[in-house]
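Section 3.1: Structural characterization of target chains.
Under the original work plan, the team committed to producing a structural model for every single-chain target entering the pipeline before any wet-lab resources were allocated. The record below documents one such target. The sequence was received from the expression subgroup and is listed exactly as submitted; it comprises 240 residues.
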Amino acid sequence: MTVVPYKDKTESKKEQVAEMFDNISHKYDFLNHFLSLGTDIRWRRKAISLLKENDPRQILDIATGTGDFAIEALRLNPDKVIGVDISEGMLEIGRHKLQRKGLSDRIELVSGDSENLQFDDNKFDAVIVAFGVRNFEDLQKGLRNMNRVLKPGGMVVILEFSKPGTFPFRQLYQFYFRWILPKIGRLISKDNAAYSYLPDSVGAFPDGKEFLEILDKTGFQQTQCKPLTLGISSIYTGIK
C-alpha cells in the first residue's frame, strides 16, 4: 500500500508530497534540527565525508529541500552543486538561505521531478539524497534515473531514516517517533498530516538489506549500508 500524507485526498503521492513540503517549508529547518536534537547535521556531515576520496566535481542533490545537504557538499570543494526538488516552497526558503550565506554562485536550486530528471546521461560525478527517497512515488524509477545521470564510476550516497532493531532502544524510539514527534510537528508546522506521514513513510520504507537489493536491481554496484545512531538512520552507497 502506498503511504501518502493526506489520506482524505485523491491526488497522487507525488502531488501530496509537494503540497506537504510547501505547507511546512517555513518551519522545516527548525523542526529538523529540534526534533533530532541536531543529530541530522552530524548525519549529513558523515554522509558527505564518504565522497571525499572520489573528489566529485559535479554533484546532484536530489530532493534538496532547503539545500542543507547541498551546502554540506561544499566541504568537498566541487565545481558545482545542483539541487532538485518538487516543492517550490522549500526551494524558495533554500534560495533565500543561499543568498544570506553568499553561496548562490556555487549552488543552483531548480524545480524538478526526481523520477524524471531533466539532465543528460552520465553528467554527474556524485548523486546525493538526504531523507528523500522514501517520498518517491516510484522508488525504482527514481533510483534508475539517478543511475542514468551518474557518470560511470560515480557514486550515489543516500541518507535515509531506518528502523532500529535493538531492545529497548527500538521500543523507546518507536514511542517517540509515533506519539511525541507528530504532536510537536503538528503544533509548530500547523500541518496536521506531515509529521504523522513521517513515521508512516519510514515504517513502510524497505530499509537495510532490502533497500540494498533494490539498489543492486536498479544498476548500482558495490552497494553498502552504514547504520547511524543505533539504526535511526542509515547511509547507503553504490557505484555506477
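The longest strand covers residues 150-161.
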